Amino acid sequence: MLFAITALISAFLLFLVQPLMGRYVLPWFGGGSTVWTICMLFFQSGLLAGYAYAHLLALRLPLRRGLMVHGGLVALSLIVLPIIPSAPEPGGSPTMGILATLGASVAAPYIVLSATAPLIQAWAASVERGRSPYRLYAWSNTGSLAALVAYPIVLEPFIGLERQAVGWSVGYGLFAALIGVCAWQVHRRGKALAVDPDRAEGPEPAGPPLSRADQLMWVALTAVASALLLATTDRLTEDISASPFLWVLPLGLYLSTFIICFGRPAWGDRRVWFGGLPLVALGLWWALDQGADLGMLGQILILNGALFVGCMALHGEVVRLRPAAAHLTGFYLATSLGGALGGVLVGLAAPALLPVRIELQLAALATGLLASLQAWRVWNARPFAAAPRWIGAVMPLMVIALAIGFALELRVRLAGVMAIDRGFYGVLRVKEIPGVFPTGPARKLVHGRIMHGQQYTDERRSEPLSYYHGDSGIGRYFEWAADGPPRTVAAVGLGVGTVAAFGRENDRVVFFEIDPLVERFAEEWFTYLPDARARNVDLDVVIGDGRLQLARTVEAFDVIVLDAFSSDAIPAHLLTREAFALYLERMTPDGMLIINIANRHLDLRPVLRAHARALDLAAVEIARAGNWLENTAHTRWVFMSRDRAFVEQTIADDLHTEKMALEDGLEWTDDFAPLLPLMKAFD
Description:
This protein has 3 domains: about 1-205, Growth Hormone, Chain: A, CATH 1.20.1250; about 210-415, Growth Hormone, Chain: A (Up-down Bundle), CATH 1.20.1250; about 470-680, Rossmann fold. Strands 7-6-5-8-9-11-10-12 form an 8-stranded mixed sheet, sandwiched between helices. The chain has a 4-stranded antiparallel sheet with strand order 1-2-3-4, with helices on one face. About 55% of the residues lie in helices and about 10% in strands. It is globular and about 85 Å long. By secondary structure, the protein is an alpha/beta fold.
C-alpha cells in the first residue's frame, strides 16, 4: 500500500504540472495551439530521461549507492520550489524559448517524478515476491488520470495560477517524504534494487530472451500512439481553443487506455479494437473534411473517439508484448522512448518538413499499418485474443481507403491555393476566388480552417471585406468617426491589413502581429498596406505579441482594434483585466477599444461585461449576419470607451446595436482565466 500510494501521488503531481506549466507559458508565446505541442514534447522527453535514469539506477548500482544517488537527486530537486517560472526575454525561437523556460523551472522535479513509476515497481518486485509489479502501473495511471480530471474541473475554474503552483510545490514536498520512506523500507529489508533474471519469482516467468522485433514494436506502437495524441490535441486546440480542458481531455483518454490495458488485459481484445478501427477511421475522415463546420461538440466527440479506439488497439498490443519483471525498467524505457519519438515527430519534424498540417492523417494511417502488421504477426499465436483472419484482410484495405480519402480531402483544401507556408503559429494559405461577380475576383488569407481576411483584386480593391465590410460594426464606426483631425490607430492582429483601408491622409496606423509570416503574406499578396502608404498614411507593422509590444510603446492611440485570433482559438492573455488596463493606459481619454468576438465556439461577452463594469466603461455590441454573395462575414464587434456620450448616443443609434448589460460577468485575470464556462457547446 505504501508503494501504491507513493506511485499514485507521484503520478498525480506528474500530470498536474503539465497543464499548470502550460498555462504559465501559453501567454508568453502568443497563446497558440503549438505552444502545448512543444510543452508535451518537453514532458515526454522528461519522461524518457526519468525512465532512463531509473533503468540505469536499477541495473547498474548496488542498493545502498542507488539509494544515496536517488536521495541526492530528490533533495536537489527541492531547490527549485516553488515552481513559478519567470517570463522569458523576447525574441529568438519560440520552440527553444518554451523548452528553456520549462527546463529552468521544472526539469529536476519532473525527472524525479518520471522515474518513480519504474523505480517503485522495481522495488516492489524485489520486496514483494510472488506479486506482479505491473499492478502498480495501473495505480500510477489512475493518479495521472485523477490529475487531468481535477485540473479543468476543480483547479483552473476556482484557484489562481500562483496558488496552484504553490499547492503543487507543497504536494511535491509530501511526495519527497514518501519516496524517502519507501527507500528506507527497501533498504531495511536488504533487497537489491535490480531483479536477477535467473532468480526471478512471481506470476510471470522470465521466459525466453527478448525478441528484437518485439522490442522495436514497443517503440513503434507507443510512438504512433503518442503522435496520435499530440496530433489530435493540436487539431482540437487549433480549431477551437488552446484551453487546458482541450489539453487534458485527449491526454486523459490516452492514459485511460493504459489503465484499461495494463489493469485488465482481456479488455484490450484486438477483435474489438482492431474491428473498430475502420469505423472510427471513417468518422475521422468525415470530421476532418467538415472541419470547423462540424461544430465544437462534434469535433470533440469524433476526434477523441478515434484517439481512444486507436490507442486501445495500440496499447493493447504493447501489453501483450510486455516482458517478465526482470526486464521491467527496460520495457518502460523503450515505451517512453516511443512517446518522446512521437513528440519529436509531431512537435519538431512535422512543422519543419510538412507544408500543411496533416499530422493527424499520417498518425491515423500509421495506426492502421501497425494494426495490420500485428494482425499478420499473430495469426498463429493466441496470447490473450488472437486476430481473426478477416482482420488481417480488412486492415490493409482500410489503410488504402483512408489514404485515398485523406488525399482527396487535402486536394480540395489546396484547390486554388496561390501561396502556402508554415511557421510556429500555423499554416497560412492564400487562395484565389474566381472572377465571378460579385464575389470575385478576389484573394483570401486562410489560417488553419478560418478565413483571416480577403480583398478584391479588381478596381474594388480598396473596399474592406469579410469582418470589416462597410456595414459591419467596425466599418460603421470609422464612417461615424470620418471627420476630425488625424488619428492614431493600433490594430492587434494584422490579417491581410484590412484596418489600413480605413486610414486617411496623415492618420497613423500601427499593426502588432506575432507571426512574421502574416506580414510577408499581407505585403506580397494583398494591397491594403501599400495602398494606405500611397494615401500618406503613416503605417508601421511591429512583429511580436500585441500585449507585450503595446507595453513597450509610449504612444497614445485614439483607437485600439483587437482581432488577434488564430483560427477560432482565443489568446486569453489579450482579454484579461490586466490587458484591458494596459489598453486604457495606451488610449487617449476619449479613445475607443474595439474587439472582434465573432467565434463559433466561445461566448466572450461575459468577460467583456466584467471588464466594462470593473473599469467603468460604456460598452455596446454590434452584430451583423454575413452574406457570401457580398463577401461579408458574420460579425460581432464590441465597442468600449470612457466616452459614454459617443458610445451611448452615436453608436447606440445604429439599429443593430445592443447595449451590454454589465451583470453576469466572468472576470479574467492573468492568474485566473477559465475557458470552460464560456464554451457554447456546454451552454
